[in-house]
Amino acid sequence: MPFLFVCYVFAYVDRVNVGFAKLQMQQDLGMSDAVYGIGAGIFFLGYFFLRFPLTCSCRDWEPGSGSGPS
User: Fold this and answer.
1) Alpha carbon distance 36, 38 (integer Å)
2) Which of 55, 57, 41 is nearest to 4 (CA)?
């Protein structure tokens, strides 16, 4: 359970950092809102389309099967 909490915190921090990065990247790189939105959308699509298959594969995964030598 603590590992899942750490993963959740990292995912939250990652999403928050994308918002903070927007402020600096738009000024430094001269990006428009549309270009930034497309870039953020690409990351969201990857997250959306990979989340479901990974969740389904983890449902069949047994906790001791791949956790090291036995």
Assistant:
1) 5
2) 55
- How many whole angstroms separate alpha carbon 41 and alpha carbon 35? 10
* Length of the chain in terms of residues written: 70
Distance CA 37, CA 35 (A): 5
Average pLDDT, the chain: 75
d(CA 13, CA 49): 21
Alpha-carbon gap, residue 61 to 27, rounded angstroms = 45
Across 11-17, average pLDDT: 75
- Other beta carbons within 10 Å of 35: 13
